[in-house]
Fold:
Amino acid sequence: MITLKEIAELAGVSLGTVDRVLHNRGRVSRENIERVMQIARENGYVPNQLARRLQRGQRFRFGVVIPDTATEYGYWAQITDGIEDARNEIASMEADVAYFFFDRHKEGSFTEAVSALFSSPVDAWVVAPIAAGEMRQAALMYPDVPYAFIDSSLPDLNPLWDFAQDPVAAGQTAARLMSLAFPEVKSIITFQSDEGAFNGEMRASAFAEAFRGFRPDVNIINLYADGPEEIRQKIRESISDDEFPFGLFAVNDQASVVCDLLEESLLKRARIIGFDLSDANREHLIRGDIFAIIGQRPRAQGHDAIIAMYNHFAISSQTADINLSAPVDIYIKENIPESSHWL
Structure:
């Protein structure tokens, strides 16, 4: 199949002239237009990647590397809902989406998922870079395959697309909410399940720095715990009897887990802000156990990442980088969306 460079050589014009003729950009002499168009027609030039693939009977293949939704809470299911929305939109347009799940608590699981993805040709991939070191290695191993970040980012890598929320802005928002809604809190726990997770660490540190600007007298404890017994024990050990009420900022989707584990007397004295409007978090938000949930539109992140990839290949390979942070949404029980479509 003839290329733009070959058309330019046959027509005796520059590559830029060929581009302007074929894409109707700028002024070109009638003589050059006719010469370029004739050569393109005679040699079966097809103007975009989608059409060229259709000629060859090929489909686009996009990969998705995210935590296993079966072992996680509702947040990742919302991401896959968005991906499935996008998959349905492009299903008739010669594009496939393949999932490769990993266990965030198992070392090497992320690398295994990436290796499985690249065992077959892939045009681009969506990835949640939770395993930061393994993600950096994957970026080195497959430098020519574009990728999109969802859920979180890594500042030292440069994906072609980035739809993750700004964790600093999210932490600062939670701090302002806590300070305005609960000026009476005596101490605050920032709760994380995974030590070293980029998103969690950034949210927690941004929250602490911002809240100290509002209330420098309040003690802030950064707590790591995973599993029911450890969560219950560490929270109870971190709060003394004279520190009620206390604030709790869950930097992930486990605010509802904390609510389920705290005894009623302790839960009534907790002022909780968490992340992600999962079904469980929604229920506790309605009850009043959770004061506010920070949303990051996981369904939209999943959907938009796939559509951006498809547009990049099918419409124009010159598509600019898309780095659009997901908004920092705030949900309280009075404004919970009725449909997950809005998440």
Observations:
- The mean pLDDT is 88.
- The first strand starts at residue 60 and ends at 67.
- The CA atoms of residues 70 and 77 lie 9 Å apart.
- Residues 4-45 form one domain.
